[in-house]
Amino acid sequence: MHPKLRVAGVSIAANAGLVTTELGVALVTGSLAVLADAFHSGVDLTGSLVALAGIRMALRASDRRHAYGYGRYENAAALVQFVLIAIIGVTVIQEAARRALFGFRVEVTPLALAVVLGTIVFDVVLFRYIARRGRALESSALEADSYHFGTDAVGKVGVLVGIGAAYLGFPAMDLVGAVAIAIAFLVAAFLMGRKNLQVLVDASPPLELLDAVRETARGVEGVVEVHSLRGRSSGPHVLLDLAVHVAPDANLERAHEIAHSVELAIKGRVPRVAEVVVHAEPAHHARALDRDHSA
């Protein structure tokens, strides 16, 4: 089994356990904060299943229908997860407003407090594990999945404060805790959703990466200048194309050798680069051709 699929399987099993535990506590106590967290874990479970499906697709080799590979399925899966988080955040805020207007009742026991505290520890451990593996495996879907556990842990602090205050005789704090969780959901959804959306709409890779590519290409023997460098991302990979100027007296075979050397040098220095298309041009030619090429 691929390591990405193994980590996704751990996430699914963990979320299934959290949903069961938190729903039980919410039904016993009537706490909106705990119920919100149970909904969040339910969304996390759905997101983990989406992540698994996205990773399975992204691991496919390129074919005639997807010449650049299936990497963006990971980004699409991650974006779906953050849309789900945003929806549940808005839903929790609406329910908090309804309870504030029409009244509610919360019954908290020491056991409920202990269960919530235990799930916080569980979320932190899973967040650290999945985030670390997501970075190591360069998986945007797993990184998104780790954010579920991270926001869950942050949200549970709000849950603990809310139901703790309710236990001490301040039930309104349960609504405050629920809203705090919802806000954490919305912030995470915006930040990571934007990151994955940029990949899906062909936003350029980071400037530091492009600068490293340009510097590497210029350092190849036979390259006079570099221009029209552009790139886009697909899952964890970057796809590039650029034009290089070579000596005007270089024959076609020599120009091809230089272009091939540029490709190998870039892939060697920047591991994220999966494909490079290099267009070789004579150094002395009409600059208007460069403008047409870059357009």
Level-1 CATH class name of the largest domain: Mainly Alpha
The name of the CATH topology of the largest domain is: Alpha-lytic protease prodomain-like
Strand order, biggest sheet?
A: 1-2-3
Beta-strand content bin:
5-15%
Estimated helix fraction: over 70%
Looking at CATH, the homologous superfamily of the largest domain is Cation efflux protein transmembrane domain
Enumerate the spans where pLDDT stays under 50 for 5 or more consecutive residues. none
Mean pLDDT: 80
DSSP strand count: 3
Rg over alpha carbons: 25 Å
The largest pleated sheet is described as: 3 strands, mixed
The end-to-end span amounts to 44 Å
Task: Tell me the overall shape.
Answer: elongated
* Structural class assignment: mainly alpha
CATH architecture of the largest domain: Up-down Bundle
